[in-house]
Each structure stands twice: as structure tokens, then as C-alpha cells.
Automatic annotation (TrEMBL):
Enzyme class: transferase
Name of the gene this protein is made from: dacA
UniProt GO molecular function: adenylate cyclase activity; ATP binding; diadenylate cyclase activity
PANTHER family assigned: DIADENYLATE CYCLASE
Catalyzed chemical reaction(s): 2 ATP = 3',3'-c-di-AMP + 2 diphosphate
UniProt entry keywords in alphabetical sequence: ATP-binding, Cell membrane, Membrane, Nucleotide-binding, Nucleotidyltransferase, Transferase, Transmembrane, Transmembrane helix
UniProt xrefs under Gene3D superfamilies: DNA integrity scanning protein, DisA, N-terminal domain (3.40.1700.10)
EC code(s) of this entry: 2.7.7.85
Organism encoding this protein: Pedobacter nyackensis
Protein name: Diadenylate cyclase
Function, in words: Catalyzes the condensation of 2 ATP molecules into cyclic di-AMP (c-di-AMP), a second messenger used to regulate differing processes in different bacteria.
InterPro entries: C-di-AMP_synthase, CdaA, CdaA_N, DisA, DNA_integrity_DisA_N_sf, DNA_integrity_scan_DisA_N
Chain ranges passing through the membrane: 12-30, 37-55, 61-82
Subunit structure: Probably a homodimer.
Length: 263
């Protein structure tokens, strides 16, 4: 095996491949957990680990023994705490997302103009439905997810798995439809489910006029990589929630750009 020799180390080709693979795994894990509550949990665990080292160095036996008991179940705690992220990571691998993303990158590198045009064609029925529902002041909550988690969504939703269309979205959110309460979830270029019950945000600093739709849209964007389009039933105003933040009074031009970027 050939080696690259430095003054202080010897690096083989196998070592280089090993480092690159570990870096790729860390990168994809970071993409899965960034801007979610998992980052705060991971930071908390790192802080506990640092405190454990300091306590050991200072010979604080009582506190050290307590932390040792906590650290002894660290692997089990990691699996329990990061169970949603582990599911998403395995789902990502199972659906060959790495390969699909690489194909998209190759298209961008070779200057393919069809990618953006095709995406705009996918978005058009959604924009048209939002225009119609804004005009009629029909309340709506549309959630876009990169990876559809059956356990997270299907258990609390009515499964549809249908092609995206303006009329279908309008009929779902029509006031007398049995599916109008809850959210529509869109993934893999399909309306996957409707009437979904989503976790509400715990943020107590939101404006008082925000109802359950806004709080559910913000909540799902806090805990997952989803984005949400919310149409107010009272005002017809369109809001866009991402990473726990909400953008109000979104125009249709802005909505098209945001969805083209995130969807």
C-alpha cells in the first residue's frame, strides 16, 4: 500500500478514504439535525461530558459518581433521544437519497436549465390553489417534507398518496370537507396525506392572533426539516414557516421563490 509521508505521520490511501467517508457521514448527519431541537439536545450532552471531565479532574467524588451513572447509559440515552433523527437517516439511505442528490448536483454542474423549470411546473398547482384559497379566505395548512416518515404522519392522518392538483387541494380545505381540519403533507411530488394532527409550538412569544394552524405549522418546522404554508381563515393572509420562524404577508412571487428553493 502506497503511503504519503509527512514529518509527523504516514497517511495511506485507505486512511484517506476512511477520513473522507467519516466526513461525509458527519456532513449528512449535520444536515439532518441542523435547525432542529436535536442540536440543542446534542449540545446539552456535550456540556454534560465537559462537566464530567472537569469534575473528574477536580476529584469531586460524589458528583463524579452521579455523572458516571448517567454516562453508563449514554448509548441507550442517545438512541432514545435521537430516535427520530436515526429513523430519518435510515430512511434517507433506504431511498437512495445520496444518489438522487448527486444526480441533481451533476445537473447543476453541467448547466441543466430543465431542473428549475420542472420544479416550477410542480409548484404551479400549489400556487394556484393558494391564490384561490386566499381570495375565498379558506384556511389551509400545507406542509412540505423531504422525507415522508410513515410513523410521524400516517398514524395521525388520512393517507391519500395522490398527484398534486389545484382542485384536490381546494376540495380538501373546503369548509365542509371532512378532511379540512389539520394539515396536508406533500412529499415526493405527491399529496401523501391530509387531516394530519401536528405538534404545536411551545413558543410563548408568538402574536396572540396566531391560531392552531400557525402554531402547528411553526411547531412542525421546529422539530423537523419541513416547511409549512399557512393561509389564515380570518384574513386570507399567507405565512411561511421554516426552522421555527414564520414569515408573514408572503406574496405569490415570494411564495414561488421560497417553494422553488425548499421544495
Amino acid at each position: 500500500m502506497k503511503t504519503i509521508e509527512f514529518d509527523f505521520l504516514k497517511l495511506t490511501i485507505t486512511d484517506a478514504v476512511d477520513i473522507i467517508l467519516v466526513a461525509l457521514i458527519i456532513y449528512y448527519i449535520y444536515n439532518l439535525i441542523k435547525n432542529t431541537l436535536a442540536v440543542n439536545l446534542l449540545l446539552g450532552m456535550v456540556i454534560i461530558l465537559v462537566i464530567h471531565w472537569i469534575v473528574d479532574a477536580l476529584n469531586m467524588n460524589l458528583l463524579s459518581s452521579i455523572l458516571n451513572q448517567f454516562m453508563s447509559v449514554g448509548i441507550i440515552a442517545l438512541i432514545v433521544i435521537f430516535q427520530p433523527e436515526i429513523r430519518r437517516f435510515l430512511l434517507l439511505i433506504g431511498k437512495n437519497t445520496f444518489l438522487q442528490q448527486n444526480k441533481a448536483w451533476w445537473g447543476y454542474l453541467f448547466g441543466s436549465k430543465n431542473i428549475e423549470q420542472n420544479n416550477l411546473i410542480r409548484i404551479k398547482p400549489i400556487i394556484d390553489a393558494c391564490k384561490s384559497m386566499k381570495k375565498s379566505r379558506t384556511g389551509a395548512l400545507i406542509v412540505f417534507v423531504k422525507f415522508y416518515d410513515d410513523q410521524l404522519f400516517a398514524n395521525s392522518c388520512e393517507v391519500i398518496d395522490s398527484k398534486i392538483s389545484k382542485r384536490l387541494l381546494e376540495s380538501i380545505f373546503q369548509k365542509y370537507s371532512p378532511l379540512h381540519d389539520g394539515a396536508v403533507v406533500i412529499a415526493e411530488n405527491k399529496i401523501k396525506s391530509a387531516s394530519c394532527i401536528l405538534p404545536l409550538t411551545d413558543n410563548d412569544k408568538l402574536p396572540p392572533q396566531f391560531g392552531l394552524r400557525h402554531r402547528a405549522g411553526i411547531g412542525v418546522s421546529e422539530t423537523t426539516d419541513a416547511v409549512a404554508v399557512i393561509i389564515s381563515e380570518e384574513t386570507g393572509e399567507i405565512a411561511y414557516a421554516k426552522q421555527g420562524r414564520v414569515r408573514m404577508n408572503v406574496s405569490f412571487g415570494e411564495l414561488e421563490k421560497l417553494l422553488n428553493k425548499d421544495f
